[in-house]
Amino acid sequence: MPALRRDRLLTLLLLGALLSADLYFHLWPQVRRQLRPREHPRGCPCARRAASPGPAPAAASPAPRAAARNFSRAGPGPERRGGRGSKLQALYAHPLYRVPEEPQLLGPEDSLLASQEALRYYRRKVARWNRRHKMYQEQLNLTSLDAPLQLQLDASWIQFHLGISRHGLYPRSSPVVRQLLQDMRRSPTVSADYSQDEKALLGACDCTQIVKPSGVHLKLVLRFSDFGKAMFKPMRQQRHEETPADFFYFIDFQRHNAEIAAFHLDRILDFRRVPPTVGRLVNVTKEILEVTKNEILQSVFFVSPASNVCFFAKCPYMCKTEYAVCGNPHLLEGSLSAFLPSLNLAPRLSVPNPWIRSYSLAGKEEWEVNPLYCDTVKQIYPYNSSRRLLNIIDMAIFDFLIGNMDRHHYEMFTKFGDDGFLIHLDNARGFGRHSQDELSILSPLSQCCRRGSGC
Catalytic site residues? Predict the structure, then answer.
């Protein structure tokens, strides 16, 4: 026990030292630069107000809530309600976030996609989708007055794809992200289907092997009228519900609001490695059931005794319809995560996390019992000759902040090589126990960054 306490103390001291160094060498110079031009000029009305006799000491400083309201107005944008702006907008308007933009792109090797090649590919995709949709309607003798989909070159999802570079999924000051979030929240859906990994499991399931049904595969791919796509994860439990202490991390429910919060936290930390994610109320009847062509997906919809429209995952939980999600009676809250470019355009590498956890009820991985495990990892390619290990540590810090213990794999674009950034996908098991910090998530940091050895 004393050794365990010393390890925790060293970990906390190390985190404190890193935070202090970041504040001293990065954030404090930014604050000083921003404060210099803010000195009041002579004759400034606010300077005269400050010099005038003030009220009684009890009212000398505004109430904390009033100050918060003033601060919330700092961020411009269309999301104001009753004169109050978004707290996130106010945060990004703060001087600490007025940092220099990332280095300019030097050439095609710094951008993920070649714009002309990508546009040709998307035109072919739209044409093929229109042909298949027409054939589907003819087979069912359906008539529709809707015009064929047209590829809009200024669509936010296209601009998002074209803006991905070796610096992140989107530029720091890009206006495209805000527009993309609005479009995913409002655009009509034209199709709904299972994801590819879920389709791969259809017919290959054994319900007797399921420890406890969870939300692993209860997700859908929605396509919008501008031909953009998003991953829809429905609301499974209330926001105030925490993961029970007796639950293993791999049987926990997935939380749609964890996906949304993880995107915003990733953006605040300036990683920009989580795809844009937004919440939306989806009409499961009109926006999923009536637009899907997948007969299996159609077959899992039913009306509950409370007259709510529900659906469940056909595989691997077809035996347990009581674990369905239901609208109220049709509206269902969920998260929408923007799709990344097709693998045909931008191949991605999926790599097992060296600090993967055991997905059994009693087993342990080597890193959980060997405090010198990182010494072995440092000798293995590519962790011995690139920034990959540092990126793993960044990902571990991010997962610690969101409480995600389910990072079994990570993905990265092959174009950017071994030093490319890691994409922080699938964060729905984060924020499960907000009242407890899981220090074991920081094992890559505590094991690899030791006194005298560096990282």
Answer: 406
